[in-house]
Amino acid sequence: MQFIVQGYPAYAYTGGRPFEARSPAIVFIHGAAFDHSVWQWQSRYFAHHGHTVLAVDLPAHGRSPGRARPTIEAMAAWIAALIEAAGLEHAAVVGHSMGSLVALQCAIAHAERVSKLALVGTSLPMPVGEAFLAAAGDDSPAALDMEAVWGHARNAMLATSAVPGVALVGASRQLNGRARTHVLHTDLAACQAWQAPPAEKLARLAMPILVVAAKRDQMTPFRAGQAAAAMLPRAQLAALDAGHAMMTEAPRELLRVLRGFL
């Protein structure tokens, strides 16, 4: 579905169901160099079980045109504008990796738009390795390879996908390979530059919060998820036996904890 957000078309996947602004709404936000399709399992379930779903493509990602936003704050403002453009008073916001920072920043700066907050595969702050950032700056295919390999648990090549015939790492590499030039670097630089808000600002968050951390995460380690949950007021922590790409490595398990929260 298309909306006009900050003067440009913006795409959001509605989970295979017509958009209905009167139903409880969930906004799903993808990570660096990816798009709405990383949420295919979870978005389709909620769309077919009483929710309005908007799995977004951030600007310059997937089917959304325009320029990639250079900061987490700018991406968060875009999410708030999309919620308004969709005619929604507020929505539950679920973000993965970079998207978790965007979701948190949106909850801080636009609290009236966020009814619940779920952070999947997060770290506060979210530092990026020098080699990864440098390769992305050169638009090297190696950066996309790093993202695909580190984005899964070790030995993920031997793991079975919930989708028959699909290789987890291979599918991830094909998806991030569709990213526009410089987008991965812009996204990673935004994560690197973002600073965790002071404790007093986090303490003002009043909406329910869920942190989902993976025990075999190579990008945002489990201990980072534990620390994030400890920083956030009254946050629940859910632990999954998976790598960073929980949406495809453990789709049923992630759906279970999101269902319990949302």
What can you see in these coordinates?
The protein has a single domain, classed as Alpha/Beta hydrolase fold, catalytic domain (Rossmann fold, 3-Layer(aba) Sandwich), CATH 3.40.50.1820. The chain has eleven helices and eight strands. The chain has helices at about 40-45, 70-85, 100-110, 130-135, 140-150, 170-175, 185-195, 200-205, 220-230, 245-250, 250-260; strands at about 1-5, 10-15, 25-30, 50-55, 90-95, 115-120, 210-215, 235-240. Strands 1-2-4-3-5-6-7-8 form an eight-stranded mixed beta sheet, sandwiched between helices. Helix 1 crosses helix 11, helix 2 crosses helix 3 (about 100-110) and helix 4 packs antiparallel against helix 7 (about 185-195). The longest helix has 14 residues, at about 70-85. It is globular and about 40 Å long. The chain starts with a strand and ends with a helix.
Name some characteristics of this structure.
262 residues, alpha/beta, Rossmann fold, 8-stranded mixed beta sheet, 11 helices, 39% helix, 17% strand
* Helix share, percent: 25-40%
- CATH class type: Alpha Beta
Instruction: Give the integer mean of the pLDDT values.
Output: 95
Task: Domain count, please report it.
Answer: 1
Rg calculated over all Cα atoms: 17 Å
